[in-house]
Amino acid sequence: MKRLWKDILESISGTDQDFTEGSLSRAILLLSIPMVLEMMMESLFALFDTFFVAKLGSEALATIAYTESMMTIFYAVGIGFSMATTALVARRIGEHKQKEASVVASQAILVGIVFSVVFAIPGVFYPRELLRLMGASPETIREGYLFTSYMLSFNIVIMLLFIINAVFRSSGDAAISMRVLVIANLMNIVLDPCLIFGLGPFPELGIKGAAVATIIGRGTAVVFQFYILFRGKVRIRVGLNDFKVRLTTIFKLIKLSYGGIGQYLIATSSWVILVRILSEFGDDAVAGYQVAIRILVFTLLPSWGLSNAAATMVGQNLGAKKPDRAEKSVWKTAFINVGFLVFFAIIFIYDSGFFIRLFVDDEAVIAFGVRALQVISLGYLCYAFGMVMPQAFNGAGDTATPTWINFISFWLIQIPIAYFLALILGWAEDGVFFSIVIGETILALLGIVLFKRGKWKFKVV
Fold first, then answer.
1. N or C end of the chain: which has fewer CB within 10 A?
2. In this structure, how many other beta carbons lie within 10 angstroms of the beta carbon of residue 438?
3. Interatomic CA distance for residues 91 and 313, integer angstroms
């Protein structure tokens, strides 16, 4: 226990551990703890955000649901570039080529900035039209369009947060990523109620205040990230010279990102379509679903942290020519994830109402939220493998395989089943909820089968 506690403290404070050597269990522990804590901070903010916005009514909750459904397309690009960055940086670190890793980091930042500007344009000019396209009611559009505009227009802070934290994680400095999100999310949590309700000297901005709090919190974190990249004592440091355009590196990043962006565009666009199907049953259904998803995210984001640890282990150990160690790290991480998620699944299935009522007191919204939480959590066992396996492929630089897995699971299975069950068979919202479980289960099974074949071990990046 003394040794365990020492390792936990080392993982949080920062470690110089070589993750291609020594105890595999210790390496996973040192990497995963800050990554899990990082994602827990993210999910904690999501819960607080939902709690405060819920006080404004179902239209406000629906606005967040519609906006985040649109933002998932942007998240797909951000996460896709993050995966490409992770694969290249981790591989270069495993090969002990720190300077090349720094160049990759700087070029990824440049590409991220360009894409952020492109994504900002519809947020500036067409927020009402976008909400209308998503099926929002006239009242929701009138009250919430500025929230949508702010979130889309200032997406650059989210993009850079994704990419630069991926640099820290994949290099082995996961504790830095954790500290960055602690800063961002603590600021969000403090500013949220102040700007939404006008506490103290702050103006009362309503739902717009939630967007402003997010922008300020994440923007401050990005400034901190750049300070560390240029001046901090970390494995990767960049200089102004690293930001000279290097087309070879950019093309390599983009090429790797195709698969990463593709798989998340497929996955996240399917969620957009699911929200669109749910909108047929009213704003209460969308609002209840939004609350349930935020609660589910509270447990799934820490699992995503474990998956990120697996990606870093795979990338660095393949770079060090140790594919067997890379494979063992993935299986260990997956089974840890199973234990974690099954525990929460039991809790959610036993008493979903308790968790939903923490956020809303509208009985119609509560009913939808309870049902969503109960049904979707039935798939937690499969979600555990479905999160780790694709990240293992991504860490190896094989972003094409998860793309095909996602295409089959979400577009060929999940969306048609949701439409058929909800609108043809008349299952209504239950059809959407059960389609999520079915799609994620197929994804997990395909991931396990393809991972065991082992072709990812021979990927060159």
1. N
2. 17
3. 10
Q: Each residue of 266-303: pLDDT tens digit? A: 877 787 788 889 888 887 888 888 888 878 877 887 78
| Nearest-10 crossing angle of helices 24-54, 283-319 | 160
**pLDDT tens digit sequence for 78-92:** 888 888 898 898 888
Rounded to whole angstroms, the Cα distance separating 39 from 45 reads: 10
Domain ranges of the chain: 27-458
Amino acid at 220: T
Rounded distance, CA 32 to CA 21, Å? 16
Question: Shortest CA distance to 176 belongs to which of 31, 7, 18, 44?
Answer: 31
Q: What is the mean pLDDT of residues 145-159?
A: 88
Q: What is the DSSP letter of 232?
A: S
> Residue 1 has what pLDDT?
66
Could you report the per-residue pLDDT of 93-105, keeping only the tens digit for each?
A: 888 888 888 899 9
Residues 6 or more apart whose CB falls under 8 angstroms from that of 356 comprise 288, 291, 292, 295, 366, 369, 370, 373
Residue 42 has a pLDDT of 73
Q: How far apart are CA 277 and CA 349, in angstroms?
A: 24
The answer to whether the CB of 251 falls within 8 A of the CB of 188 is: no
Amino acid type, 300: L
Q: Are 442 and 409 in contact (CB under 8 A)?
A: yes
Interatomic CA distance for residues 62 and 56, integer angstroms: 11
| 123: three-class secondary structure by DSSP | helix
In 138-162, which positions are buried (b, 16+ CB within 10 angstroms) versus exposed (e)? eebbebbbbbbbbbbbbbbbbbbbb
Q: What is the token pair recorded at 13?
A: 């404070």
What is the token pair recorded at 457? 């071990």
Q: Which of 66, 65, 204 is nearest to 131 (CA)?
A: 66
Most confident of the ranges 132-136, 350-354, 415-419 = 415-419
Please give the average per-residue pLDDT across 235-257, as a whole number. 86
